[in-house]
Q: What sequence folds into this?
């Protein structure tokens, strides 16, 4: 996701791309650093904000059948207590690629062992993990600040232990306000924010923007977040109610998302209701044995690939090599082949040490026959052809 920018020159994607791919490593800097004075250095290299965008996307032929043969299934929360003996084991991979754009503005977090990272007491929910994808625009300040602070704002909230969803929602807004107060940073830069906090078997997905989280459930794609585009009916109504306008799919003619952190040149002053919201939408689910992996990606992936195609592709890759990092790299490579026009960042989180099991489709034992009358009718039709 980004404000409109032109791709000024054609780039040979397959020959020149250099993927920054990392598996099960922390992309989170020291959470104790509250000043972030060093981040002001990145402002000088941010891209221009006033250029237009043209998207042209084509699909690779080898995956065309996968998208047409598989539909996206609706999400049903698992009943309480189902598969009570299931204990998830977290392992993740990531891949981040600049793509055809001139600047890389994405950030991400992969923390497979939250308790170890935070050094919390024994009563902290275990196992625990935290993941995030932050798609920046107008510079990297907002994405970097959010990546470095969002987890701290969540766990330090007084409601974290009792009302986790309330703590997460509050943390997004507090992080947004803290960024506005960081004088050394460019508060006009912005970022989407998609996070996954997993405590035991409970997973909380929080999203503000057009990045997307998709659950792989025995080969089915379950979308756990909504893309906050200005033209979506709910977002359009909210924007217009607060005095905002939408021009050609852009909020106030400037931004291609309806929710984001930062962008304080659009939001105005703190404490006022703005058409551009930093409040996330949340989804809470209970993980079961059928939930195999989670895909989190910025819109550079989803602009050129359906959720079901990504889930099918990751499942096939995991069955071959069981490596989430290689799955991320495969998704990024495929998106580049489909001519994505944006930065690409993908995180894949597996909930088991084992690869997904092969899905066996039972053979039908019903015998089908045709009656004598039907056979005569068929012969008559064929004889007249």
A:
């Amino acid at each position: 996701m980004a404000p409109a920018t032109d791709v000024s020159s054609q780039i040979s994607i397959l020959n020149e791309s250099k993927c920054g791919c990392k598996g099960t490593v922390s992309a989170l800097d020291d959470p104790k650093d509250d000043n972030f004075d060093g981040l002001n250095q990145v402002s000088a290299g941010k891209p221009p904000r006033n250029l237009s965008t043209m998207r042209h996307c084509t699909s690779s032929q080898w995956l065309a059948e996968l998208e047409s043969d598989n539909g996206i299934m609706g999400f049903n929360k698992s009943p309480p207590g189902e598969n009570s003996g299931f204990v998830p084991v977290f392992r993740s991979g990531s891949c981040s690629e600049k793509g055809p754009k001139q600047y890389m503005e994405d950030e991400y977090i992969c923390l497979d062992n939250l308790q170890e990272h935070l050094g919390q007491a024994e009563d902290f929910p275990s196992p625990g993990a935290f993941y995030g994808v932050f798609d920046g625009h107008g510079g990297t300040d907002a994405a970097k600040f959010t990546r470095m602070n969002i987890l701290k704002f969540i766990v330090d909230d007084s409601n974290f232990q009792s009302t986790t969803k309330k703590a997460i929602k509050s943390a997004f807004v507090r992080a947004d306000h803290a960024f506005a107060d960081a004088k050394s940073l460019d508060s006009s830069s912005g970022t989407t924010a998609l996070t996954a906090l997993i405590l035991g078997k409970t997973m909380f997905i929080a999203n503000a923007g057009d990045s997307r989280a998709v659950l792989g459930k025995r080969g089915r794609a379950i979308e756990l977040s909504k893309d906050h585009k200005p033209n979506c009916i709910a977002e359009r109504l909210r924007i217009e109610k607060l005095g905002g306008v939408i021009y050609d799919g852009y909020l106030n003619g400037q931004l291609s998302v309806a929710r984001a952190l930062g962008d304080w040149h659009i939001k105005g002053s703190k404490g006022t209701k703005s058409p551009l919201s930093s409040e996330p939408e949340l989804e809470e689910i209970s993980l079961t044995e059928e939930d195999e992996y989670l895909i989190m990606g910025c819109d550079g992936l989803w602009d050129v690939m359906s959720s079901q195609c990504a889930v099918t592709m990751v499942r096939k890759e995991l069955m071959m090599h069981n490596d989430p990092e290689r799955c991320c790299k495969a998704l990024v490579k495929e998106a580049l082949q489909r001519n994505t026009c944006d930065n690409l960042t993908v995180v894949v989180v597996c909930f088991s040490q084992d690869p997904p099991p092969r899905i066996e489709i039972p053979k039908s034992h019903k015998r089908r026959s045709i009656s004598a009358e039907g056979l005569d009718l068929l012969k008559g039709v064929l004889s007249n052809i």
